[in-house]
Amino acid sequence: MATIHYDDSADLSLIQGKKVAIFGYGSQGHAHALNLKDSGVDVRVALADGSRSRAKAEADGLTVTSGSEAAAWADVIMILAPDTKQRGIYEESIAGNLQSGNMLMFAHGFNIRYKTITPPSDVDVTLIAPKAPGHRVREVFLEGGGTPALIAVEQDATGGAKQLALSYAMGLGVTRAGVIETTFKEETETDLFGEQSVLCGGVSELIKAGFQTLVDAGYQPEIAYFECMHELKLIVDLIYRGGLNYMRYSVSDTAEHGDYTGGPRVVTDQTREAMRGILKDIQDGTYAENWIAEDKAGREWFMGRRRAEQELQIEKVGADLRAMMPFLDAVTLKESV
Questions:
Q1: Cα dist. 207→31, 72, 304, 314 in Å?
Q2: How many Cα neighbours within 13 Å face the side chain of 68?
Q3: Are 106 and 127 in contact (CB under 8 A)?
Q4: What residues act catalytically?
């Protein structure tokens, strides 16, 4: 059984007595900085000169400094920049400013697991990883609740790493929902696997394949969109609340029967073998090596895929349909490429 910590396991005064630097002010960065600030923690945000997030962070009432200044000032440093940017930030702004007894924190274990960052032996290295997007971490905190999170201790130089990390988690609000103990290795490998095989890669390909199968068979794209993408939220919401059993209880018997008969024809032994291959590449570092190399080379393949995916028929049909649904608060987003 997993070890789960709640508010009664944490002492908020520990993090309130520390100076905390948050590197990055994106989805997670803004939530961490603002929640900690609201919890009485002395927080500064580290951003590069010219960052588009600087004005937003300052408007939110936060002190913004350079990375080097923030690292030299802080007792606790949380790195919330994209995975492929963290090594450069660490080497340029953090490594030379770390002091013995500091705590270096992450919300994803990628750079520690694959050793692109190797902290000195006299600092604590921990992880607090909320299991929700940053905007949701912030919203639920303001509502008085919290989102679940993971905690891991990679290096305990001071003997108090776990308790300080739990205090940070309490300031973030996640001990209200529960913080599960894990390791950097387990968090990184399961997170990457879930994203690639199910949550992002698996679901995206399944949606596109279902849509295209119907369109190729002569059905209206608008109908195919509703059946293969729009209604997915309804199903996921049921699963989120009560698992697969509650979803099956809530849908029709015909839909449940189709679940049992159709699912195994789509997710076959070949699919499971592909999943094992994905996991192997994550475990032995192949995936990380390839992604880091792609990033260093300028992301030509990655950006090409992004452009191609933005132009898919299902994206264009979906945008038109969502524009006619004011209740959705639809978002139109096309990344600069």
A1: 31, 48, 20, 9
A2: 4
A3: yes
A4: 108
CA distance 11 to 293: 42
Indicate the pTM of the whole model.
0.93
Q: Compute the distance between CA of residue 15 and CA of residue 120 in angstroms, rounded to an integer.
A: 22
- The answer to whether the CB of 7 falls within 8 A of the CB of 170 is yes
Sequence-separated (6 or more) residues with CB below 8 Å from residue 154: 109, 112, 125, 126, 127, 183, 184
User: pLDDT tens for residues 241-281?
Assistant: 999 999 999 999 999 999 999 999 999 999 999 999 999 99
Closest by CA position to 182, among listed 151, 161, 148: 151
Q: Which contiguous run of DSSP H or E holds residue 205?
A: helix 201-216
Picking from 74, 70, 75, 92, the residue whose alpha carbon sits closest to that of residue 25 is 70
Interacting residues of 303 by C-beta distance below 8 A, sequence separation 6+: 337
* In the block, residue with structure tokens 């030379």: 96
Q: Alpha-carbon distance 242 to 206, whole Å?
A: 23
